Amino acid sequence: MNRLFRVFRALNGLLGQAWGRFSARGSPLLDICAMFHRLLLGAFIGPPCVGLLCRELSRQVYFTAIRRAYILVFTSLMLGMLVIVNATQQLVKLQGEEFVGWLLVTIVVREVGPVWAAFFVLLNSGGAITVEIGNMSVNQEIRALKMMGIDPYRYLGAPRFWGITISLLCLYILCVFTAIIGGYLFAQVFAEIFWAKFWLSFVNALQWIDLSVGFAKTTLFAMLIATVSIYFGFSCRVNVDEVARNTSQAAIWSLVLVGATDIILTTAYYL
Amino acid sequence: MLNYALNLDLVTLPLDTAWPAPLSLAVAFNEVVLIEGAGPAVSSPLLEVAATLASPVAGHVRHWGRDAAMGRREKLYRLRRRIAYISPQQVLLHLLTLAENIALGPCYYQGGSEAEALAPHAGLLAQLELQAHLTHYPTQVSAAIYARAVWARELIKGPELILAVIGGDLATTAGAAMLVNVLREYLARYGAAALLLGESLEAFYPLGHRLFRLESGQLRKRTILEHRARPLTAYLPLV
User: Fold this and answer.
1) Dist CA A230 CA A68 (whole Å)
2) What pLDDT shows up at residue A83?
3) Which of A247, B94, B114, B211 could cross-link with A130 by S-S, CB 3.0 to 4.6 Å?
4) How far is residue A262's CA from residue B6's CA, in Å, rounded to a whole number?
5) B160: Cβ–Cβ under 8 A, 6 or more apart, which residues?
6) What is the value of ipTM here, to two decimals?
7) Which one is predicted more confidently, B43 or A141?
8) Does residue A148 belong to the interface with chain B, where contact is any CB pair within 8 Å?
9) What is the rounded distance in angstroms from the CA atom of residue A258 to the CA atom of residue A221?
10) Whether A139 and B109 lie within 8 Å, measured CB to CB
11) How far is B83 from chain A (nearest CA, A)?
12) Highest averaged pLDDT of the listed ranges B14-18, B21-25, B209-213
């Protein structure tokens, strides 16, 4: 009986340790979920400060979607060109030029386009948000906002969350559009596929479901990147070193969550 | 009124702060209580407990008998809005101009633009000599103007309870004289309770109703003769 009790106690200790490790690793995920819920509804609950929130939102949209959009245009052109360069050589050999459109829809519209735009936003704005909010937190500005009776998650978080979401949707459309242009340019030069044939092939291949999956992925990626960046920004408490550490953590968490969401949505599409 | 409803019940301050004496204090509506001999390092943590309404290390911050921190988040923020907390450690948002910083509270709670929020308070801004600096960012102004902007930001909220640590540039004779005028006008116009702490508050004696001095870990009461007949009608006990 005594031996049984010792075994039970050891097992209990092991389970406790395992739970401790799980909760220590899992708690940021739970906190991120709570933050996501708060940011999603934050803009709509509270005092009527539409002008103030719109000003913050427009700043975020300008910073994310407008200021460096030319870089995304350039990289998306290259993406379209790469797809065509790799594909057309084989397709021309097999007399399958009509599949160029299908290829662009699958790669650019549904799979790589959302991830491409999300990576651009993660590199361009994700880190910047974490650093900005982190520095404000370390400089006691968040505390000052709280003392003034202003909810910092609503005033700073919600406009950035929706700003990133709107920006990424716009950037996704821009990315798809420029990738198609890039693809067409290369298709004409290297494979002698002309505009009418190229466009017809693309339009015939494009289905509503492809666009819906692309937009769904883009929206979720944007929300995840914004939530994670804001969460790690607000998590900074002590000093500037913590801001640097949290910025890299935010990037890693964003990558993991975007990857996991992509896999789930792609699998759901094929089921 | 908030000065009546708010109650700090056996609050223990964080371990790294040292409020030297247990304090039981009442602040009446339209009363100004002064505590001398307590510098910013000592007095800021005490006032922060009242201003943030966050759960202290021990004890309770109660509002109408209920734990203030246990209420809904929106209610907590509404309560905080009714308290002005000013100390040398208070900061402005570095990405906003002074005008945006000062008007942030009214813009957040009532909507509208900065100009609309600041227009009714032009007199206050003129008294604090801030009008020439409204378009500047906090990093572009001197420490004195920065401190005055913090006062303006807090008073524009329309607080019912003013908790202030007097230090830095506003502890000088000129700065204190300016603040006395500002506070006198605010109290006459809107009515509020005020608790001011600082090393030396002699410049604020004309405004104060009761004076305490922190001496060797004890609070000793001193009466300011001009105001001794004022009745105590409501209170803010700080224990």
Assistant:
1) 21
2) 83
3) A247
4) 51
5) B1, B2, B3, B82, B83, B191, B192, B193
6) 0.81
7) A141
8) yes
9) 6
10) no
11) 8
12) B209-213
DSSP B157: T
Residue keyed to tokens 């709570």: A34
**How far is residue B213's CA from residue B200's CA, in Å, rounded to a whole number?**
9
Element (H, E) at B59: strand B58-63
Partners of B84 in beta bridges? B162
Q: How confident is the model at residue B223 (pLDDT cuts 50, 70, 90)?
A: low
Cβ-Cβ contacts under 8 Å, A146 against chain B: 52, 77, 80
Show the 3-state SS of A172-228: HHHHHHHHHHHHHHHHHHHCCCCHHHHHHHHHHHCCHHHHHHHHHHHHHHHHHHHHH
User: How many CB atoms lie under 10 A from the CB of residue A137?
Assistant: 22
Q: Can you give the pTM of this predicted structure? A: 0.82
Joined tokens for residue A93: 């050999």
B185/B180 Cα distance (integer angstroms): 9
What letter would DSSP give residue B128?
T
Of B78, B92, B111, which has the smallest distance from its Cβ to A149's Cβ?
B78
- Average model confidence (pLDDT) across chain B: 77
Q: What share of chain A is helix, strand, coil (3-state, %, to 5)?
A: 90, 0, 10
